[in-house]
């Protein structure tokens, strides 16, 4: 691996010590190939407590592959994953989820015909107490709706008043909110958001960015994959730049400008040539 | 309209006035059973006007008894269609389960209740075979059940040597489902009660249990369900297995209704059960619908049969009318799917 990946991130004021703290999630030397196509060519990644780490990169740079390896959707060919310092292996998405890593997929993975509360608890339904739950397997619909309302309110989503509403009647931003709320409600350690603002308008995007900040305030670290540089620079603490299957560097909104980050991402320059304000 | 001042074009759009047609669309979207219910009520009124005998307790009791078998099969069919599948082997499984149960009861002297249990197990096993082919070999349900339709039909005919088993030869309990008893001026069979209980049980499971949620989620968007942590294959397999068990149970109701176990019974069960499901508003694309609609759909078909024959109309008009209803029902389903807030 090139020297760039081992460079300690400079960090914003307040997260300047992140280089010394133990990462919540860390990947070492991830390799993933698809036949002759190299998706990941030895990638390291560190996610520190309470930070928003953006992952940017051009199409085919390995963003998705990297995220899939972190969330169990793909199994890396080589390399190691550590969650809170302990080595972990995810064979399927459920493994990562059980370990406390929740992912909001670009496709959102919601069931359109089911209502908001059902979607929040999909695959993790709560049953009624007593015989009704144990023998008749009856759902605790009231409890789930109450918890769903609370989960949405906690993220500052006041616009979704009726959790019994079918998800397909919601706008793109509202669906995104449901998916993020689901991740936030169950993700105990890490939340991964894949292109959460890609399909959204300006106002809805801002809503999602506020939700990301809310997650950070709660102390939940977030990995944000995005093409949208203004969004990345607005919320990210550190930015992992992926290029041609490798990590081309980790910068911060303070150390580098948007054009510099894009230049590194596209290969117009390198981190050595553009060390940034603080790192230089 | 002036309650809130829209600040963006999107908000303005959200506050636009809905046309009456859009309102209807919204109501139907929230309550898909309304349209089959309306069709049922209207057809009842029309047929009762054409021939008052249609509304007599006698005639209505007969409709219920006629509808029972297809109505029961349609419960299993609903489950499968909710997962965006389809089951063409409904009738074949029922016949196979029935002939096995009946022949072993007569030939080997298996007690009646055990023969019924055997039929249910055979049905469940046949359903599980369908489910296994769908989930393991990833074959489309249409192809799988088209194949097993022939396989199960052939096995049923080979095993029974094409011969019926008369009801008088069978243990009494097998014909018990055909027993009638009066409810007011109506005559209800045990089979009809069993079908209603079946609707209640499956309706409860679909609406009130996690399994039901998962069935809808899998039919709605398989990939989303998988990413949400639902074991899609397991849900699908369970659906086909439960449907098969329901077909096995229906074999019992069929013996009571027909008074015999005949390998040539219910040849049209496939299409008739799908018809009831579709007219009942369950979407062929999965994830949407309920057994209540299927019950209404089965009753509508029963009403058309009895009503048109009492009106002295050629039976082909019933076939024609049911065909039109199916197309209408699917068109309405497509339309209400387009609803947006």
TrEMBL record, chain A:
Gene3D superfamilies in the record: P-loop containing nucleotide triphosphate hydrolases
ABC transporter domain mapped to chain residues: 25-269
Keyword vocabulary terms for this entry: ATP-binding, Nucleotide-binding
Taxonomic superkingdom: Bacteria
Region annotation Disordered: where it falls in the sequence: 1-22
InterPro entries membership: AAA+_ATPase, ABC_carbohydrate_import_ATPase, ABC_transporter-like_ATP-bd, ABC_transporter-like_CS, P-loop_NTPase
GO molecular function, one term: ATP binding
PANTHER family (alphabetical): CARBOHYDRATE TRANSPORT ATP-BINDING PROTEIN MG119-RELATED, SUGAR ABC TRANSPORTER ATP-BINDING PROTEIN
Protein name (record): Sugar ABC transporter ATP-binding protein
Organism annotation: Micromonospora carbonacea
Automatic annotation (TrEMBL), chain B:
Membrane topology: Multi-pass membrane protein
Molecular function GO labels: transmembrane transporter activity
Top-level taxon: Bacteria
Residue intervals passing through the bilayer: 33-50, 62-82, 88-106, 113-133, 139-159, 188-207, 235-255, 276-304, 316-336
Record keywords, A-Z: Cell membrane, Membrane, Transmembrane, Transmembrane helix
GO cellular component terms listed in the entry, alphabetical order: plasma membrane
Signal peptide start and end residues: none
Keyword ATP-binding in annotation: no
Name the UniProt record assigns to this protein: ABC transporter permease
Organism of origin: Micromonospora carbonacea
Lineage, top ranks: Bacteria, Bacillati, Actinomycetota, Actinomycetes, Micromonosporales
